[in-house]
Amino acid sequence: MKRFLVFLVFTLLVNSLTLAQNPWQYTHSISFPDPDSTVFPLLCDVDENNRLWVISSKAQAPDARNAIYYADPSDTMFTKFIDFDRNGDSDTLSGNIGATRGIAALNGSIYLSFTVPFPRYSPQTLAGMYRYDNADSNRAFEIVASGSSTNTYGSFNHGIDISADSIIFAGISFGTTFRIYNFSQNGFLAEYGKYIPPFPGAEWNENNQTEPGGFEQEGKDLIRDVALVPGVDYNSTESYFFTSRNSYDLTSNNGGIAVWKGGVQTEPVDYTPARVEDFEGFLSLIDAWPYGIDVDLDGTLWVAGIDSTRRWVKGFTVEGVNAIAEHELPSSTSIEFADPDGAPMAGPSDVAINKNGGLAFVIDAFAKKAFAFENTLVSVDDDPAAAGIASSFALEQNYPNPFNPSTKIRFSLSEASDVKLVVSDVLGREVTTIVNEKLSAGNHTRIFNGNDLTSGIYIYSLTASGQKISRKMTLVK
Q1: Whose C-alpha in 24, 208, 278, 456 is 20 to 30 A from the C-alpha of 80?
Q2: pTM: predicted TM-score of the whole model, two decimal places
Q3: Segment 365-385, tens digit of pLDDT
Q4: Domain hosting residue 398, numbered range
């Protein structure tokens, strides 16, 4: 009982500190035009000019319209970009679009993934993509599946994201995995707009990895969204990305976040998934969807908790497969941490963070609005290219502190160095090594998990380039 009370006091303390230190402020909502009351906002993205792009979809609401809308940061009303129902691309077996599924923005162009009207190609489950050059609805490159064969769209696509090389990563229903599509000008990868096989000449096979929750059941538990990490080179085997997946039902517990590592975008066969775990269980996603996700410039993973047990959007620091919730966008209805000055979230379906981390947008499927937030610690004029450059050798205080069982440790290197970050007890006995490798100059973050340690004070020490800094931290169980 005593340990429980200590933990309860600790939890309340951390929560109150988080509220007091939350740099995010809710600013305003963005509504859809009154004639478009049948919208069902599903997923979103923000472009280089901070313009928010949103798809309305029939995926969850068959009576909704398939459409794309946009809004600038100060807008309080969306502008319709294109309505597929009205232009004949949707709502009919002669149209292309059965349900819009994902959207991405890059270099002025807008990319849309969608599924084909059923049963147009029954019994196959097919899909397609559009690209709108220079965000012009009259300048569309269209690719729509015409059958299930090599390098076509022979499976449902869902949420998408796009790398700096114009390569799209999409969650797919077939195999409950992902697929990569070439929208670059590199014809050696695959024909423009077509998918890049796991290796040359290959179809999907046993070498492709299935999402950690296993194969989908009745199409009810799929990869719903994909998030790439800004600044990561997806031609490197060090690259990684995230996917979100809902559970089949309330008892299956097969939903959650996966991190995929070890592959490259040109031959994606080597990407291997692992379930991301957090101590609080925030990421044990249930049967709602889409649980939209995004990653900001600092590598923070943002997750939209659409179901009624969440109603929040949290930011997680992820190290390996361990995650710790560090941020939450103010929500007056958050089940975990209600903020009376926050957005009245009914069902946050997706989140988008702008390029420099100063703006955030939340799409709410049930409120049928978007909510806008500003980061008070970041100027919208800040240069994101400088965000990762450190001018000195520094070790920050861990956060949270006290902690149980995980905490985040940040440090900065002014030059590339062989680095050692260790944890010792108060008697100077080393209990674990967190880092022992060469790291580049810049800011770095690591998560320390004290599951195997007893409560008490510990010392964490950073050594690099002949310098050493130490700080104290407190583990409370």
Answers
A1: 24
A2: 0.79
A3: 999 999 999 988 765 444 443
A4: 388-475
